[in-house]
Amino acid sequence: AQTVTQSQPEMSVQEAETVTLSCTYDTSESDYYLFWYKQPPSRQMILVIRQEAYKQQNATENRFSVNFQKAAKSFSLKISDSQLGDAAMYFCAYRTMDSNYQLIWGAGTKLIIKP
Amino acid sequence: DVKVTQSSRYLVKRTGEKVFLECVQDMDHENMFWYRQDPGLGLRLIYFSYDVKMKEKGDIPEGYSVSREKKERFSLILESASTNQTSMYLCASSFPQGNGNEKLFFGSGTQLSVL
After folding, report:
1. pLDDT digits (tens, 9 = 90+) for B73-93
2. Which chain B residues have a beta carbon less than 8 Å from that of A34?
3. How many Å apart are CA A80 and CA A78, to the nearest integer?
């Protein structure tokens, strides 16, 4: 069975600096999707970034980028120029290519931004 | 913007009560999901529905049932609430794209306490 592990329950970073959140996963599949979702204090989860496993190029969305290491089954999220609005829970998630729409979620990392 | 509305932000119920959690989305999405979020466990899928009157069990369906009589509304029912069902419940919806690119849109969650 697939699993997703986020080993950092909590991380903190100084405003304007860069922080990396870790995620590892276990799967025997060769094609799949990986996601980072953000849950701010408002509790409404929003998609930050998405990566297809067959793409070697790391996904980037403005200040958010991933380091996808397929062989190591690692999918870390880098946030550059951290802002106070980045404070949130961040969840890593995995999805297979089949049609059951089911995501496997990590336990989450709480990111604290220090002003 | 897609809006997913959960009827209650906070709910307190007594053990043995029948509890209804309502979720409505306004973007004509086929897929709707109910997740349970607990600290240290991430999100776990309770049930999902890919069409009206269709439902499939997720990872933890025991003690729960669902109803989807209309496309926009997906209800989670706790037949006889128990204290171990105290949790945050998140509803989500998506439009199936068949290529893994579907994006989940979440409600703001219902924090349920069962006393």
Report:
1. 999 999 999 999 999 999 999
2. none
3. 6
